Amino acid sequence: MVGSAVRAARRRAGVSQAELAERAGTSQPSIARLEKGQVSPTVITLDRIARALGSDLVIDFEPQSE
Fold first, then answer.
1. Fewest CB atoms within 10 Å of the CB: 3, 6, 50, 62?
2. Rounded CA gap, 55 and 58, in Å?
């Protein structure tokens, strides 16, 4: 789910994986693995990616249904 959200945000911003990687201070293969759901990124990494895309990272908790 995180990977698809990153991919969607990157596409909305109109940037390539390579450009996002450069802006976020990581590698293109790292972005590709994240988008494919092969890794679990830290909140710090997600924040760097969000900032690189000109976005804010929002984390939310929803109540459990009883």
1. 62
2. 9
Domains defined for the chain, CATH in brackets: 2-52 (1.10.260.40)
* Residues 10 and 51 sit within 8 Å (Cβ to Cβ): no
- pTM value is 0.87
Do residues 53 and 20 lie in contact, with contact meaning Cβ atoms separated by under 8 Å? yes
Which of these, 43, 32, 42, lies nearest to 3 by C-alpha position?
32
Residue 49: φ, ψ to 5°:
-65, -45
